[in-house]
TrEMBL record:
SUPFAM superfamilies: MetI-like. Belongs to the binding-protein-dependent transport system permease family. The keyword Transport applies. It is a multi-pass membrane protein. Its main location: membrane. Keywords: Cell membrane, Membrane, Transmembrane, Transmembrane helix, Transport. It is found in: Cell membrane. This is Sugar ABC transporter permease. Pfam families: BPD_transp_1. Residues 80-295 form the ABC transmembrane type-1 domain. The chain crosses the membrane at residues 21-47, 83-105, 117-137, 166-191, 212-237, 276-296. It comes from the Bacteria.
Length: 304
């Protein structure tokens, strides 16, 4: 039998379209959900942000009026300022504290699993519970301030939730208490992925441990840092329930954040157009974080 006959009788491979057909069929509901609900809802929100909708959504075009009014509102400007302060400090402290805790855990300490559970436990609580707990702890009448004063330091003052100039830092304390454990676990997973031979080679060469972390380990953990950055940053942009539980945006509007501004205008002030405009600005903020991450992760892999 000739080679020509063999080539004609050999069964054809299924086309690329029909490979893993069962998996592709199973993913259709998820794809439709993403397209209809998430993508459709996003487009719907952006479109109606250019309207003068009040109690109900109506296609009465207002151009950029809602955005001009948004950026002229002092309450929105305060919320943006609070988000910047809260976001920058939250990123810095959560990364530093999380990495230090992970580095200590990576030393094969005793009762490691117990310590991991203790540090990660606050993340299992809802932000409402965390906010209420820290509202009590930071209350000057029966919280930290009262306990320290009863110990003899009668002039001690620590009431961040009642001071407009530092209230955002009181919210930051509660956020770090809850979220740092997750960052620690992500960093610890990255550290455990480092080959032991690298540590042995660094010790043989006499490289100090801090230089090993700074110049060898941290650059190797770049994917972990980027993933953690996206997770933490997305949580920062949509922070809402922690603020409501602790201060309800007060004193006054001193602890206002964008997510609370959106909720109040959409469901209390009955100004859907203004709420949609604020939501669109928040969407752009998230896109500024996610798009560079996607480019760095997937674009680099394609080039490689």
């Amino acid at each position: 039998m000739t080679s020509t006959t063999l080539s004609t009788t050999r069964p054809k491979r299924p086309s690329q379209l029909f490979r893993n057909l069962s998996a592709k069929l199973a993913s259709i509901p998820m794809i439709l959900t993403a397209l209809v609900i998430f993508l459709g809802g996003t487009v719907w929100t952006v479109v109606y942000s250019f309207t003068s909708s009040r109690l109900l959504p109506r296609l009465r075009w207002a151009g950029l009026e809602q955005y001009e009014r948004l950026w002229a509102t002092p309450r929105w400007l305060v919320s943006i300022e609070n988000l910047l302060v809260y976001g920058v400090l939250s990123l810095i402290f959560s990364f530093v504290i999380g990495f230090v805790l992970a580095a200590l855990m990576d030393q094969k300490i005793r009762f490691e699993s117990a310590f991991r559970t203790i540090f990660l436990y606050p993340f299992a609580l809802s932000f409402v519970v965390t906010g209420l707990v820290w509202q009590w702890l930071l209350n000057p009448e029966f919280g930290v301030q009262n306990i320290v004063r009863e110990m003899g330091w009668t002039s001690f003052t620590f009431d961040p939730l009642y001071d407009q100039s530092i209230v955002i830092y009181g919210i930051l304390i509660a956020s770090l208490w809850q979220g740092t454990g997750l960052v620690m676990c992500l960093m610890l997973a990255g550290l455990r992925g480092i080959d032991e031979d690298i540590w042995k080679a660094a010790r043989v060469d006499g490289i100090p441990m801090w230089k090993t972390y700074l110049f060898i380990v941290i650059p190797m953990m770049r994917p972990v840092f980027i993933t953690t950055l996206v997770i933490v940053a997305s949580g920062i942009v949509r922070v809402y329930d922690l603020v409501v539980a602790q201060t309800s945006g007060g004193p006054g509007t001193a602890s206002e954040v964008p997510a609370k501004y959106v909720y109040d205008y959409m469901f209390q002030a009955q100004n859907l157009g203004q709420g949609f405009a604020a939501s669109t600005v928040m969407l752009l903020t998230v896109a500024i974080v996610v798009v560079p991450w996607a480019y760095l992760e997937f674009g680099r892999r394609k080039r490689v």
